[in-house]
């Protein structure tokens, strides 16, 4: 039986991470030398795209890991652990704290470098020093003139689902009045 047929049978023809039943393919877990059934999983295009490109991660999509992290299959557990370490959201640490993996499986999961503290990692903080994360909501603490337009973002305006600038800890991005703008972190307060 081919690897794809075995994975289809094992997964019930659904993504082993999110449960989607469309646009499925075999995904070989990277950074592991052996290629066999225990290092492959059946995944949808959405999961594969986000596993391969951290810039495209949608934290809300990965709430499915609450269920799939308990899979009996090592490849699924490894990718669940890796994605929980890549997602910048408060809820991921709770799930990582609950997750159980055998020591040898955990070593395979760590082979990609996920979960290691990066001493050069940028930390975005609001005016009060509270750490900001991707997807947080903030409130403007003063009126801000938006460069390149006549718009003024008013004090007290809520900015939801912010994005962090990966090159500068002082900048975040968010939508104000339907317009995507860059905001300096010293002018926001986390809600």
UniProtKB/TrEMBL annotation:
<feature type="domain" description="PhnA protein N-terminal proteobacterial">
    <location>
        <begin position="6"/>
        <end position="52"/>
    </location>
</feature>
<dbReference type="Pfam" id="PF03831">
    <property type="entry name" value="YjdM"/>
</dbReference>
<protein>
    <submittedName>
        <fullName>PhnA domain-containing protein</fullName>
    </submittedName>
</protein>
<dbReference type="InterPro" id="IPR013991">
    <property type="entry name" value="PhnaA_N_proteobac"/>
</dbReference>
<dbReference type="InterPro" id="IPR013988">
    <property type="entry name" value="YjdM_C"/>
</dbReference>
């Amino acid at each position: 039986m081919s690897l794809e047929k075995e994975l289809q049978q094992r997964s019930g023809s659904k993504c082993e991470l999110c449960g989607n039943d469309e646009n499925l393919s075999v995904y070989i877990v990277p950074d592991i030398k052996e290629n066999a059934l225990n290092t492959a999983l059946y995944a949808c295009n959405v999961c594969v795209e986000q596993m391969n490109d951290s810039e495209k991660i949608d934290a809300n999509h990965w709430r499915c890991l609450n269920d799939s992290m308990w899979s009996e299959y090592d490849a699924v557990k490894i990718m669940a652990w890796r994605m929980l370490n890549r997602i910048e959201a408060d809820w991921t640490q709770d799930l990582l704290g609950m997750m159980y993996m055998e020591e040898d499986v955990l070593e395979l999961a760590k082979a990609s470098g996920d979960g290691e503290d990066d001493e050069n990692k940028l930390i975005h903080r609001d005016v009060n020093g509270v750490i900001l994360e991707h997807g947080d909501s903030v409130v403007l603490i003063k009126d801000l003139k938006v460069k390149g337009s006549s718009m003024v973002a008013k004090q007290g305006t809520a900015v939801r689902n912010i994005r962090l600038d990966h090159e500068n800890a002082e900048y975040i991005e968010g939508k104000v009045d339907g317009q995507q703008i860059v905001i300096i972190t010293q002018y926001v307060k986390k809600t």
